[in-house]
Amino acid sequence: MASEKAGRNKTIDTPLSEGQVYLNRCITVTEKQTDLCAVTNKTIVGNMFAVCPLLPAKSVDLIIADPPYNLTKSFHGTTFTKKKDTDYEAYTRQWLSTVQPLLKDNGSIYVCCDWETSLIVGSVLREFFHVRNRITWQREKGRGAKANWKNGMEDIWFATNSDDYVFHLDAVKIRKKVIAPYRVDGKPKDWDETANGNYRDTCPSNFWDDITIPFWSMAENTAHPTQKSEKLIAKIMLASSSEQDVVFDPFLGSGTTSVVAKKLHRRYIGVEIEPQYCVWAEQRLAMAESNPEIQGYVNGVFWERNSLPAQNAAQKKPGVSKVESEQKRRPEEPDPILTSGNA
Predict the structure, then answer these.
(1) What are the φ/ψ torsions at residue 323 (nearest 5 degrees)?
(2) Domain 16-168+211-296 top-level CATH class
(3) CA dihedral of 282, 283, 288, 291, whole degrees rounded to 10
(4) pLDDT tens digit sequence for 299-309
(5) What residues does each domain of the chain span?
(6) What pairs with residue 59 in β-bridges?
């Protein structure tokens, strides 16, 4: 049985012994697939090195990969052991060469990493793709260090297969409150005047400071040690794919990429080696059927942090619900479920 949690704790931690109904929704792939019909919108239980060669070439529009960072970390009993830099470089080259044949000529790939592995990932990525940018996002959580700066940032490398690729700029603009509005002939200049305040939709940069790490009172949170937030993945997906495109995650973990794809009307394929995480992924996919919301993404717009009242007003909500008030927690408040790591 799962341990009893506090009433506000919404962390998904259904044990494998109780999650057979979700595991039954997953599939295994042992034979070469001639098309995507059998694997689309599925969670594949298996090792990505074995599964990827069995998938059709040039069938994927977007790859979002969150491989193990070069840290010794246990993933529900499966341990990734820190490697020498040369060995981690070889590992990175191995998995990138495995997924590269799946990407369409106009496809894109995003790779998550920390500051140390970023030096390796960026270099190896250039061997296979056209590197476009390095995104740095503020994760805040994590333990402090006595003789070093606290690690509060992570990187995401953005690359494409060619110079012909998808990028929907308007889909990922950020709505920010205008502090000192500028007018021309008495009319707003590059901002909107609304009954709920003055706002400007700004072009996103490669530094993201509007991301909230999943914490224990958020419905998307799981007990996975390195879970990324839905908002983070939604930014990538909206920018570099279109509706009904195929999004592939070779290191699915607790299922964030697949869940976001479902909520944003993309098709998805996820590969995860650990059955326990497959259970949580399918559980979240089931939850997404009745709750398609992505925190911080309202009415087709990304909002800056600490703007919940404005988001509610945009949705014409009369007040803040109990759940929303729970989510409006100080980001520096300690999280009893996820205390460190690269989540």
Answers:
(1) -65, -45
(2) alpha beta
(3) 180
(4) 888 877 766 77
(5) 16-168+211-296
(6) none
